[in-house]
Amino acid sequence: MYETGSRSWLVNTEARALARGQDILVRHGGVVTRCAAPGVRPFVAALLDRAVDGRIDIDPSEISEGQSSQFETLMSQLVAAGLFIEGSPPAGSEAQDLDPVVLGLWQRSGGSVERAEIHARLRDRPIRLVGSGRLHAELNQSLTDAGVVIGRDDDITAPAVVVGSHEQDPVLTEWNAERLSEDLEVPWLAVVAFNGGQATVGPWVVPGQSACYECYLLRKASNFGTAEISSALAEAEPVGPVFDSSTRYPGLRLIQTGLVVDKVVERLGLQERAGQTVPGELSTISLRFDSIDLENHRVLRVPRCERCSPSAGIGYPQVWFAKEAHK
Predict the structure, then answer these.
(1) Is residue 214 included in any domain, yes or no?
(2) Up-side HSE of residue 105: CA atoms within 13 Å toward CB?
(3) Judging by DSSP bridges, how do beta strands 128-130 and 160-164 pair with one another?
(4) Of 37, 67, 98, which residue is a domain's last?
(5) Which domain holds residue 278?
(6) Which of 4, 47, 204, 297 is the most exposed place for a label (fewest CB within 10 A)?
(7) For 178-196, what is each residue's pLDDT tens digit?
(8) Is residue 107 included in any domain, yes or no?
(9) Could you tell me the sign of the dihedral formed by the alpha carbons of 43, 49, 52, 53, in that order?
(10) pLDDT digits (tens, 9 = 90+) for 56-84
């Protein structure tokens, strides 16, 4: 296609073309841009009718020399307004242009990460998915559908999503201890099914840099209203098996699954420009009588954490400790 000199544009599915008289109004989010060039309304209508799967291919030889300047001016206005996105020029770029996940991440980044780079990252950077149960199975399917490569369990360099049936599930606490012992700083995301009050996505743990999972458990226990119970919770251990409760709330499970997929896809595709995977980032989904609430939190390191703090038990008070303290 590109070998013949043709050019392509993608229809921005986040924008809408509206007509008022002979003018075109492009509504993109909360911004409306007016295009009032002569002939713009039939021009836009013809382009949209020509689109195949959201892609418009035009051979320059179809445009007369006298119309070329006007064509370029109109297309520049419509691209600036957000109605169209110019396709990638290299040969063989159709895959990245037509992949809606790649295009969505590119738009989310404000164009700061090239579509070819996003496409390569999603293809070449696997994640590990650890756990069991219905939520784990649904995440496996949804992440695969989003183009995420599920890697091998023994790939210690791949980020991980670890699914627990409850917050003290050994799959989470043991994973936390093992990752801290490796000193590789490979990030992982904790996911806990609905526990009667809320479901959690996070924290996003970067061993050696962020709060570890034990820090999260300590902080959660300390937030309990009664000091006596709070202290007991910090030292309590689960008794007997805990069964998967996510099957009782399929709608809530879908929200949680979608949130995990969005965080993981953003992280893989945008890397350091991802806004949702800040170290210690935690999202809670709470079931209320009249609503489902989503809140974001930041879990900080706990100086008394015996898992990750080199200063645990050696001084008081301590608000924080430096990462270099153990070197």
Answers:
(1) yes
(2) 34
(3) parallel
(4) 98
(5) 120-326
(6) 4
(7) 999 987 899 999 999 988 8
(8) no
(9) positive
(10) 988 877 887 778 888 888 999 999 999 99
